[in-house]
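Q: My collaborator sent me two sequences in one message, no labels, and asked for predicted structures for both. Can we handle them in order? The first one she listed is below.
A: Yes, handling them in the order given. First sequence, followed by its structure tokens:
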Amino acid sequence: MNKNQAHATPCPRRQRERLLDALTASFCCLLFLSCSLAPRITVVADERIERLVQDEAARILDVTEDKANSARFRFFLSDFPRADLLGMSIGQRRIYVSYTLGRRALRSDRHLWLLRQTLAHEIAHEISGHADQAKIGFNRSTAGTGMTARDIGLPWYVKFQPYSLENELQADWEGMKYWEKLGWDCAIWLRILKEFERQNYTGDIHHPTDARLTQAARACPLNTEPRNSPQQGSFGRAAIR
């Protein structure tokens, strides 16, 4: 090897150090969601649905303790590859909502109530600071299977930590309190969960339908049939988490 070749060939040790630095930077970016995660989530532009989501979210935020910061919330539509994913919160007052759910809510009162439940639940996650305790949270239904990056259109190497059962139940509880302040019938919330149970949605260790239903029944003790009640089976096979 001549002198010129020696200068042209990088030091193996330096190469390893640069590679390690690059990998460390990438890992930190993914771990703390501080770099490119949010922009890579597929976003759908639809003015009518966006307006609906914003209007319904504004009504909920108006009765929360974070009302003063309502303008800082950001809501996005995403056509999640996984059809039963209704929404997710990722911190910093950013919430993603299923485009399919929003589209159906424009035409159906039944899905409008499901959208309202989804928004109340996710807003409660954000206000409660749950995203500071978990790397990313999901609104999901499938029992016994974990959410993957590809379910929301992200690269396979992105990893997630779901909200705990305690967090999920707290988000339900706070969401129902928002409904009460708005004068929305808690029996509708309860009916949605009963429909999940009727369809044999047992949930998973973080989202057991029976625990959520038991809590909802305590919060809605009259357990009356809701006014303008959605018909049985009308919510399909998407669950809210």
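Q: And the one she listed second?
A: Here it is, processed independently of the first:
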Amino acid sequence: MREIEELGLPDFCRKPTLVLGIGNLLFGDDGFGCAVVEYVEKHYAVPETVCLLDAGTSVRKLLFTLCLSPIRPHRLLILDAIDVGRTPGEVFEINPAEIPPIKLDDFSLHQLPTSNLLHELQESCGVEVRVLACQTGPLPQEISPGLSPAIQAVVPHAAQWLMDEYLPEDHQRRDDLIPKKESGLASVPRDPPTLGHRTCASRR
């Protein structure tokens, strides 16, 4: 561990698990990933083995750094907004290989260069890459901060999924994962989604 620290690498390279919330908070629902990161930081105790980062619109720079780094996380989870024609507010996993090369806006994950970097990390660098996406409503054509009600309502659900299904793999006790604030979480489901069409916002 000391040798790794002496390399002077940032936490997002050194920690075993990296969670990136990406998007633009100034363009409505595109800020979903950033909002989930903020919610988790506020309501949960995040394990020391996890780097939780609001990457904003800088995701490509971070991914490029990871590709070049001699030390990388074992697992990478991307939280982002996406438009694939589903119901606004639907939260689901998508295989990185299935990310459509369709731009939501100039700052979105869904541009081919970023998708290529994710593929490089997964196939050539041995990093487990997962993407938790949220179907957006219509995105504004000009600056308009704040999520729509439909997207804001599923932020706690996405945060709960992240803690229940992803972070416990770091062997954290369930007691350690109890939210710091209990309000507003009574209806959060415990069942995680699977790749495909099941969402984490509703039970089947």
